[in-house]
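Weekly modeling sync, notes
Attendees: S.R. (lead), two postdocs, one rotation student

Agenda item 3: backlog of single-chain predictions. S.R. asked that every request posted to the team notebook include the full sequence so nobody has to chase files. The rotation student volunteered to paste the first one in as an example of the format we agreed on. Action items at the bottom.

Example entry:
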Amino acid sequence: MKIRHLLMALVAAVSLSFALAGTASASFTCYGNVTSIPMYGDGPGVGPVDWYMGRNEAFIGQLTVVSNGHFWSFGHSTGSAPYDYWVLTEKLRC
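Predicted structure, as returned to the notebook:
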């Protein structure tokens, strides 16, 4: 599962780097907008829920991608650090 998680992150990072050609990528901070936000380790909405993020909990994101018509952010919440997960960006207040 960890290898798959790393591969998905690498694929997302490479595709984002092509989309952002010539621009710098930086981390961003958002906060949980609803209670019990599911976070996925295997990819954007893929596999079982690995962690739940709470309302108003900080999320430190590394990148955002579009998958199946939804924006997904990759990063960690204060409770899930140091492990990174995928979360629906619409569930965050940025």
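Discussion: group reviewed the output briefly. The beta strands are 28-32, 37-40, 49-53, 58-67, 70-77, 85-88, 92-93.
Action items: rotation student to repeat for the remaining queue; S.R. to check formatting next week.
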